C-alpha cells in the first residue's frame, strides 16, 4: 500500500456507498412495524426481530448524518424517519427515560437502565431534527440530552449494583459521552456551554484516565484519577481508549491545540503497542493492565469496532501530525482489518472473530452490532484521506 | 480405560485429597482478615483480594461437607470456620440480604442483587451448622433459606431490568435452586416439606424446561413451558442442563423412580450429543437451540465446571441404569477432561480453555471459580465408582 490517499478515499467511499449502506437499506428496514431489524446473518437474513434501542438510535443517526453531511437523498431521510417515528412512539417510559430493548411491535422488554440509551437518542434525534426540520424531533433530542446530564453522576440509577462509598470509581464512558454529545448537539447549544464541556471532558480524560507513565487509557479510575487494584480498576479496553483518543484529537484540532493532539497520538500508539496480538495479529478486546487474567472470558476476541475506531484514529492522527508511526500503524491495521472483517461477497463486515482471526459468529448484526461503527468509520476515514489527498 | 471402578474411585479420591483440597488449604486462606482468597494464578499466587460471596460460601460448604461426610478432621472444620465467621460478620446488609462481593476486609462492594448469594449462604451455613453444632449458624442458614423462598418469584428484586408483562419467562435456575437447597436443608425441614418441594421442582424441570421432542433442556421458557423465540428463549446452557439432570437422577433414585431416572439420562445424552464439539472435543458453553448466533461471545469456550458436572452425571447415570451409552460417553468425557483441565504439576484444574482446548486464562481461581465444582465433582465421582466397585 503506497501513499495513494486518493485511492484510499475512493476505497472507503465505495465501501460505504456501494456495500455497507446498501446492505442495511436492503435487509434492515421493518416497513411493516417501523424501526429496524439488526439481527442479520451473514447474508442479511433476519434471525431475531427484537429492537435494541442503542442500535435503533444509532441507525437513525447514520442515515440522518449522511443526509446532513453528504447528500440530500430522500430515501435516506425516509429510512431515518421510519426509525425516528417508531422510537418517538415506543422508545421511552412515561417519564421520558429510554428503554433498552423493545419487541418487534415496540412493546418494552428491558427497562431504562442504561444512560447510553438516552445518549444515543439525543444523538439520533438531534441529527434527525436537523435533517427533517421537525420541531418534535428537536424536543426529543433536548429531553434525552437533559436525561444524560441528570443521570451522569449515577448512570445506572436504581439499577446500580455498586455499594456506595467503599471503593468509588468513575468510568471513561461518562466524559466520552459528554464530549461526544456536546459536539452532536452543538447547533442547539450556546458557544459557552460547548467550550466549558469540552474543556472539562478533555481535561478529565487526559489527566485522570490517561496514565502518562504507562501511556495507557484506563477504563475506570478513582475519582482523583489514581488506580484501584481490582478487576475493574485494572481493566484496559483498547478499542474504547483509542476511540477516546480520536475524540480528543478531533476536539483539539478544532482548537488548534497541537500539544493535546500529540498527547492523544502518543496514548493511541502506546495502546496499540500494548494491545496488539503479536502472535495472530489484531487487537485484544480486553486486557488487565498488570497482566493478570481479565474477568472477561471474551478478552482475546477480535471485534470489528475496535479495529474500525483504530483506523479512524490512525488516519486522523496521521492527517493532523504527519507522524510516521501513525502511518506505519495505519498500514498494519488496514491490512488486518480489511482482510479479516470485510465481506465483499455479501456486504458489511463481520463483527466477531476469535483470537486467530477466524469468524466466530456468522453475522452482520446482532444485539450490539448494528448500522453504526462500520459506516461511521468508513465515512470518517474517507474524509481523512480526502483531506490528505 | 477398562471397567476398573476401583481404580477410578482411587483416582478421584487421590485427586480430591492429595491435589485439590491441599491446593486450597495452602493458597486460599486469609488468616489475617478471615475468609478466602479465590483469585489464584496457576501456581496459587493471589492476584486479587476481593471476596466474592458465592465463592466464600461455596468454600465453607466444601470444607464443612468433607468434615460431615468424610472424616472429622479438625483442620477442615477450622478452615470452614474462618469463612463462616468472616461472612457471619460481613456477609449481609441490615435486612439479612447477602451481598455479592466484599473487599478483603469485608466492606461491601456489590449490593445483594443475586438470589444465588442467599442460596449458597443457606447451603454453606447449613453444612457448617451440622459440622460445628453452632446454633447461630443454623439461624443464619434458615434466614438465608427464607430469603430464597421470599425472592424466588423475582430473584433480582429491584435490580431486575425485565419490563413486566411483555414477555414473561422463567429460568431453570429457580427450580434447580429449590431442589438443591431442600436436599441441603433436609435435616432442618419436615418430611412433608421436602417431598412437596422435590415433587414440584422435578415436575417443573422435566415438564417445562425439558423439551421432550428435541431432548434438550432450555435455560428459559414461558411460564407454561412453551418456547419463546428470542435470544434468552433459544439459549441452551449444556453444563447447566446436564447438572440439572444429575440433580433429578439423584432425587429420583432416593424415590426408586426408574422412569424419571431414565428420562433424565435420555436428556443428558441428547444434550451431550447436541453440545459436543466434534472438531476439537469438549462441550460448548452456550448454544442457540435453533443454530443462530448466540449473544454470548464466550459461547465456544470449554469450561471446567461443564465437564466436571458431566462426569458426575455420566458416572451417576451409569451407576443407576447400567446403560452402555453412559459408559461410552463417560470414557470420552473422562479422556477430554483429565487431559485438558487437570494440572497435576501445580494442583487443581484450569478453569477456562479456548475452543481448541488450549488454556485461555492461566488461573486456578477467580471471580467465578473457587473451591467448589472441582472438589464436589471429584467427591461425587469417587462415591459413584466406589458404589460400582
Automatic annotation (TrEMBL), chains A, B:
The keyword Iron does not apply. The keyword Magnesium does not apply. Keywords: Isomerase. InterPro entries: 6-hairpin_glycosidase_sf, 6hp_glycosidase-like_sf, AGE/CE, AGE_dom. GO terms for molecular function: isomerase activity. GO terms for biological process: carbohydrate metabolic process. It holds the Pfam family GlcNAc_2-epim. PANTHER family: N-ACYLGLUCOSAMINE-2-EPIMERASE. Belongs to the N-acylglucosamine 2-epimerase family. This is N-acylglucosamine 2-epimerase.
Amino acid at each position: 500500500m503506497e501513499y495513494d490517499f486518493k485511492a484510499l478515499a475512493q476505497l472507503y467511499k465505495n465501501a460505504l456507498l456501494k456495500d455497507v449502506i446498501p446492505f442495511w437499506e436492503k435487509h434492515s428496514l421493518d416497513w411493516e412495524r417501523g424501526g429496524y431489524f439488526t439481527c442479520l446473518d451473514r447474508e442479511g437474513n433476519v434471525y431475531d426481530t427484537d429492537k435494541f434501542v442503542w442500535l435503533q438510535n444509532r441507525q437513525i443517526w447514520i442515515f440522518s448524518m449522511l443526509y446532513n453531511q453528504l447528500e440530500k437523498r430522500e430515501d435516506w431521510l425516509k429510512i431515518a424517519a421510519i426509525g425516528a417515528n417508531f422510537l418517538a412512539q415506543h422508545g421511552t417510559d412515561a417519564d421520558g427515560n429510554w428503554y433498552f430493548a423493545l419487541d418487534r411491535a415496540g412493546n418494552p422488554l428491558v427497562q431504562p437502565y442504561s444512560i447510553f440509551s438516552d445518549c444515543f437518542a439525543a444523538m439520533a434525534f438531534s441529527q434527525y431534527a436537523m435533517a427533517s426540520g421537525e420541531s418534535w424531533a428537536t424536543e426529543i433530542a433536548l429531553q434525552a440530552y437533559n436525561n444524560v446530564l441528570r443521570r451522569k453522576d449515577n448512570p445506572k440509577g436504581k439499577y446500580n449494583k455498586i455499594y456506595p462509598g467503599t471503593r468509588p470509581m468513575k468510568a471513561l464512558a461518562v466524559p466520552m459521552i459528554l464530549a461526544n454529545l456536546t459536539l452532536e448537539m452543538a447547533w442547539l447549544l450556546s458557544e459557552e456551554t460547548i467550550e466549558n464541556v469540552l474543556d472539562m471532558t478533555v481535561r478529565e480524560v487526559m489527566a485522570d484516565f490517561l496514565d502518562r507513565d504507562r501511556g495507557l487509557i484506563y477504563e475506570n479510575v478513582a475519582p482523583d484519577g489514581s488506580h484501584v487494584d481490582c478487576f475493574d480498576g485494572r481493566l484496559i479496553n483498547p478499542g474504547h481508549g483509542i476511540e477516546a483518543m480520536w475524540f480528543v484529537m478531533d476536539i483539539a484540532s478544532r482548537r488548534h491545540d497541537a500539544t493535546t493532539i500529540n498527547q492523544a497520538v502518543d496514548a493511541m500508539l502506546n495502546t496499540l503497542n500494548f494491545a496488539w496480538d503479536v502472535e495472530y495479529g489484531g487487537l485484544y478486546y480486553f486486557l488487565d493492565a498488570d497482566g493478570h487474567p481479565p474477568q472477561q472470558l471474551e478478552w482475546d476476541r477480535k471485534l470489528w469496532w475496535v479495529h474500525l475506531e483504530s483506523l479512524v484514529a490512525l488516519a486522523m492522527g496521521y492527517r493532523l501530525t504527519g507522524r510516521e508511526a501513525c502511518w506505519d500503524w495505519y498500514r498494519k491495521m488496514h491490512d488486518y482489518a480489511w482482510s479479516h472483517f470485510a465481506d465483499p461477497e455479501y456486504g458489511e463486515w463481520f463483527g466477531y472473530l476469535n483470537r486467530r482471526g477466524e469468524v466466530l459468529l456468522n453475522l452482520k448484526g446482532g444485539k450490539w452490532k448494528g448500522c453504526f461503527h462500520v459506516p461511521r468509520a468508513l465515512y470518517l476515514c474517507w474524509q481523512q484521506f480526502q483531506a490528505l489527498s
